[in-house]
Amino acid sequence: MTRFLDARAQEVLEGGLMILCFPGRPDGTLPSHFIANVLLYLLGSCFLDMANKGKVSQEKVDSFNLPMYIMSSGETKEAIDRNGCFSLLKLESLFDLAESRPRCTAQEIVLQVRLVMEGLIKEHFGEQILEELLGSYPKKLNKRILSFIL
């Protein structure tokens, strides 16, 4: 976040306003309990299963890295304050995922993940694993996650 804010500070004129919209997790929610992280953990588990079956190399799995961290509102405020280039006028959540999200099926989650991740997966692992990988994902979702988001 520091680099991002430093770069924006170079672009915004003095006295200008900036509106940011990005995913965040509720204050007090551990990253390991936030839905986006749980979904990625389960996808990683599917990759590991494929490596254990010899469908992909363990080295490929180990080198597939998505360095992501979804900050809480408090962490976002602290990062902006620490940066010192901006004044925070307002920080709000657009919606509470647990309260406002309509129920969705495992297959709908797979389609969303496919939309975001397909290009990355194909580039790193090749196209040949995609169907099997995403075919195993709903089973893990049904076991572990649907009760989390429904």
Count all strands and give the number. Answer: 0
Round the Cα radius of gyration to an integer and report it. Answer: 19 Å
Order of helices and strands: HHHHHHHH
Major sheet characteristics: none
Identify the overall geometry: elongated
Briefly note the structural class of the backbone.
Answer: mainly alpha
Query: What is the terminal separation in angstroms?
Result: 31 Å
* Share of residues in strands: under 5%
Low-confidence stretches: none
Mean pLDDT: 86
What topology does this entry show?
Elements: H1 2-11, H2 35-52, H3 58-63, H4 73-83, H5 97-100, H6 106-125, H7 130-144, H8 146-149
Structure report:
Helix 2 packs across helix 7 (130-144) and helix 6 runs antiparallel to helix 7. The protein is elongated and about 55 Å long. The chain is 59% helix and 0% strand. The chain contains eight helices and no strands. The chain has 150 residues and is mainly alpha-helical.
